[in-house]
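By way of example, we now present a protein record of this kind:
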Amino acid sequence: LKLPLTEREIPVIADSYVDKEFGTGCVKITPAHDFNDYAVGQRHGLPMISVLTLDAKINENAPAAYQGMDRFVARKQMVADLDALGLLDSVKPHKLMVPRGDRTNVVIEPMLTDQWFMAMSKPAPEGTYFPGKSIAEVALEKVANGEIKFVPENWTTTYNQWLNNIQDWCISRQLWWGHQIPAWYGDNGEIFVARDAAEAQQKANAAGYTGKLRRDEDVLDTWFSSALVPFSTMGWPEDTPDMRHFMPSSVLVTGFDIIFFWVARMVMMTAHFTGKIPFHTVYVHGLVRDSSGQKMSKSKGNTLDPIDLIDGIGVDALAEKRTKGLMNPKQAANIDKATRKEFADGIPPYGTDALRFTMASYASLGRNINFDLGRCEGYRNFCNKLWNIARYIEDIVGDFPDREEVKPHNSADHWILTKLQRFQENISDDLDNYRFSEAYDKLYHFVWNDFADWYIEASKAAPNKLLLAHLLESILTLAHPFAPFV
């Protein structure tokens, strides 16, 4: 296609990615600056031409008139130039999903840069624990053969979908903090990967390079470092007592949103470097959100500090806490206003056990949890109920009697012992199978309804002291995972 202004040939290609019904059905392709265009460019062997510098200015690959301009300034200037040349037909708004940074809300421009990648589907070499298999393949097998199981089991599907469609992992990041990439560069593009600078220099000398070496400034992806946790914290590569005792561990408790980012990568890395699995079971819980269903974050100013729920906090101190150190200080006024509206009287002290009860009641197998202070208040009342039950029984029993066989005296005693036995069996089964909210619900109803409201009232005329002592001790033992301090 000949354009009179530049006499430059522009290739025209046909690709199924283009929606013929949208606009003219003809679009430009910029493989270096769009994820979908990049895929189109790969399919058609198009050159990857980057037109941006790292600080989002126009580089030398663009016409001279625009070089050095900020991206937004350049775009306006290009439209003005087209209009001045009589080549602009119209400018129409349309819905375009523009990616923005989570913290700064600045528009993100996709662009090609040099990065380090880790091969996900490349077979491991001889001498490794699983030669001939990729680390993703091994991670899939560990779940498929039952060595690792998910609770609830349906999250296995999410795990498998990620690993079956995995791409090579970009493990380098341009951040201030992290594990620095262990690579050194020579003046002519030589690359030497080593454990430290001395080893890199040795490799350079062996390769005949005698010049200075410059270490890569990038750091490893946070999830790369996190994936090493199961074994790197145990003294690996040494065969330490901790490695022998804690590898693999029993249960990993985590949220559904990082099954791929963390769980799958821990499985891959641990298997590759140790030949073992990192854990036997992955218990997946929902995410705790604020009362309106928004994800809690410091930038939104809607987080709740557990210490404030335990000890209580005044509204002034809470507002100050939520508006301090914001990524965008301009949001402080709105956050302060919203905080004072939602917590006009601050947060009363609920105590540690009431908060633990609250979180246990939320530990169902759903995805999202909207945090409600009203629940904390209800479970604080339940803790008070436990306390009052204990005081009542201690007043009747006095010093706890020596362990003797507990014998029922009447039908009420028979009834409560039968209830206790069934309750103990059911709550143990719930805890063994990670049904924490159901376990707590059974505890709540047994204590409040069966024991306090019914049996204690029925036994007041002729209390069975041994049985009362046994019941209190049993209840406090069963409540201990939820309320250890009470």
Summary: The chain is about 45% helix and 10% strand.
